[in-house]
């Protein structure tokens, strides 16, 4: 498969413009899922919803990766491109096959699941196609400090994200609905610790890949989950008089 530069550029700018538009929309109202899910309408279980919406971002890159060798560009399947694509897929493997079966969240509105599945499909194709068929890596790519720093940021962000999700799940026993103040890990510094970890994760990926598609995705992630962390922070401040005053919404010590 040859590189389709125009499609890569178009989809990347769709992510950038869409992310900014989503950010502006969430300044007025939070996206309708989780604690902000509407009571009416068609919904599916949180576990099924998360699986259906996240798994395309794992399967599409996997399909591109498994294409016969002769269908790839003449540069072949370099180690650098494969490593970065597997890094991307690692997140969505966890989201699809581990997180989705552990979550205890509220039912997800069916339209939200469908929109998210479309987004994950397009983004999975964009990142996979660009890395396998468009990206260029020097033979000395592994010695570049930027790539090492980006991959380190990705790993740190993913650890923060997974650990924070574990803390949130531990706040309630099955069947409970009461809200509690999360404690431990990055929650000692920010309300949206899981969102902070995800943003760090994808900006680390963007630093390592150093491409328009990866930075577009990182920006979209920040515009998507960043305002949600701020909404949650205000909600916790209203619910709990003893909420830690030093805890920020998203970025430690800053925001």
What labels describe this entry?
255 residues; globular; two-stranded antiparallel sheet; 2% strand; mainly alpha
What do these coordinates show?
The protein is an all-alpha fold and 255 residues long. Helices cover 63% and strands 2% of the residues. It contains eight helices and two strands, in the order H-E-H-H-H-E-H-H-H-H. The chain has helices at residues 5-26, 46-54, 56-65, 79-102, 110-133, 145-170, 193-209, 212-239; strands at 43-44, 108-109. The longest helix is centred in the last third of the chain and has 28 residues, at 212-239.
Structure described in brief:
The chain has eight helices and two strands, in the order αβαααβαααα. By secondary structure, the protein is an all-alpha fold.
Q: Give the overall silhouette.
A: globular
Q: How many helices?
A: 8
The beta-strand count equals 2
> What is the rounded Rg?
19 Å
Low-confidence region ranges? 71-77
| Fraction in helix | 55-70%
Q: What is the string of helix and strand elements?
A: HEHHHEHHHH
Strand and helix map with partners:
Layout: H1 5-26, E1 43-44, H2 46-54, H3 56-65, H4 79-102, E2 108-109, H5 110-133, H6 145-170, H7 193-209, H8 212-239
Helix pairs in contact: 1-5, 1-8, 2-4, 2-5, 3-4, 3-5, 4-5, 4-6, 6-7, 7-8
């Amino acid at each position: 498969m040859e590189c389709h530069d125009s499609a890569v550029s178009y989809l990347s700018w769709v992510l950038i413009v869409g992310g900014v538009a989503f950010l502006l929309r969430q300044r007025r109202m939070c996206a309708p899922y989780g604690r902000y899910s509407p009571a009416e309408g068609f919904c599916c279980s949180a576990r099924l919803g998360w699986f259906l919406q996240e798994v395309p971002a794992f399967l599409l890159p996997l399909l591109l990766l498994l294409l016969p060798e002769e269908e790839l560009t003449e540069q072949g399947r370099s180690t650098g491109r494969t490593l970065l694509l597997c890094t991307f897929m690692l997140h969505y493997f966890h989201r699809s096959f581990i997180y989705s079966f552990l979550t205890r969240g509220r039912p997800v509105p069916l339209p939200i699941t469908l929109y998210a599945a479309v987004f994950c499909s397009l983004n999975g194709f964009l990142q996979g196609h660009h890395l396998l068929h468009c990206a260029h890596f020097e033979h000395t790519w592994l010695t570049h400090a930027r790539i090492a720093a980006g991959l380190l940021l990705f790993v740190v962000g993913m650890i923060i994200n997974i650990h924070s999700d574990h803390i949130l799940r531990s706040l309630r026993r099955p069947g409970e609905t009461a809200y509690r103040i999360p404690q431990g890990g990055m929650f000692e510094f920010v309300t949206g610790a899981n969102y902070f970890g995800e943003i760090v994760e994808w900006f680390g990926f963007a630093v390592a890949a150093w491409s328009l598609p990866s930075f577009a995705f990182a920006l979209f992630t920040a515009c998507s989950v960043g305002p949600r962390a701020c909404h949650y922070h205000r909600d916790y401040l209203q619910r709990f008089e003893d909420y830690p005053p030093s805890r920020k919404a998203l970025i430690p010590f800053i925001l």
